[in-house]
Amino acid sequence: MQTERLDATFAALADPTRRAIVARLAKGEASVMELAEPFEMSQPAISKHLKVLERAGLISRGRDAQRRPCRLEAAPLREVTDWLERYRDLWEARFDRLDNLLEELEQKEKRHGRKR
Amino acid sequence: MAGKGSGKLRVTLPSDKEILLSRVFEAPRHLVWEAMTKPEYVRRWWCCMDGFTMPVCEIDFRVGGMYRYVMVGADGNEVGFHGEYKEIVTHQRIVHTEIFEPFPDSPALCTMTLEARDGKTYYQTLVQHTTKEARDMHVQSGMETGAGIALDRVEEIAQSLGTPQHDGEHATR
Fold first, then answer.
1. Cα–Cα distance measured from residue A22 to residue A24, given in angstroms and rounded to the nearest whole number
2. What are the pLDDT tens digits along chain B (173 aa)?
3. Is A82 part of the contact surface with chain B (CB cutoff 8 Å)?
4. Is residue B58 part of a domain?
5. Which residue in B103, B106, B145 has the most chain A C-beta atoms within 10 A of its own C-beta, making it the best mutation to test that interface?
6. Which of A20, A81, B50, B89 is the most exposed place for a label (fewest CB within 10 A)?
7. CATH number of this structure's domain A3-112
8. Domain encompassing residue B39
9. Where do the structural domains in chain A lie, given as residue ranges?
10. H or E element at residue A92
11. Which residues of chain A have a CB within 8 Å of the CB of B28?
């Protein structure tokens, strides 16, 4: 598991503004100005958030010097959702095994009578 | 997200800091309790993945006692958890800390409850990021690690990635 990368992704997504930016970019690329608009934040403030997202690899910036549109990079997000899925799968598998054990314990108890 | 297992487990995210696991076991409560608290039984279900072994399963089952579970993969990678029992109500409730060893500064608090109904056992565990200090430390350092952080948002985002037309409107708590 690339824990460091996962950390950076979690840290970047821990902030509600950054999550909103990511959600906005999920609909398509946007310039800093376009991103700043709905958040009622200054462009420098938005730029700061974008730097965090960029460092986490969640977004990339276009080359066009004027506009530098931001684009969402899906891979790190995928890593995080995979992490949640793995968590779920892990516990599901554990408890399915626990079911088998419980059945065995129940049989044993029936055979030997309850000792309490 | 379709799992590979029986689909009996529910994982919900009550808040940005919490994970709630719920499951019904078709077995009497005292057996679920034993299976979850005795090392010889825990070994049989906690380490569940192919190729993994569980070299450490220590349980000092008393308030103030510690536990430690370690899984080792075929590649030698270790996954360790440990914690301390804070509260034990026999057959009903266990409160313990949980430290995922790669992140020793991010303990979680787990509250496990078992409810007996119609011969079945209703299980729940709430995993909470505990102290305000831990949370503040996270905020200060800008580092948030571990389980349960904003995962519901992440899921929404992932879903919106799949359906770019979608407006992304969602209910918040």
1. 5
2. 444 678 888 877 676 677 788 999 999 999 999 999 999 999 999 886 667 889 999 999 999 999 999 988 877 878 788 999 999 999 999 999 988 777 777 788 999 999 999 999 999 999 887 654 444 333 332 223 333 333 444 455 555 444 433 333 443 33
3. no
4. yes
5. B145
6. B50
7. 1.10.10.10
8. 10-162
9. 3-112
10. helix A74-112
11. 106
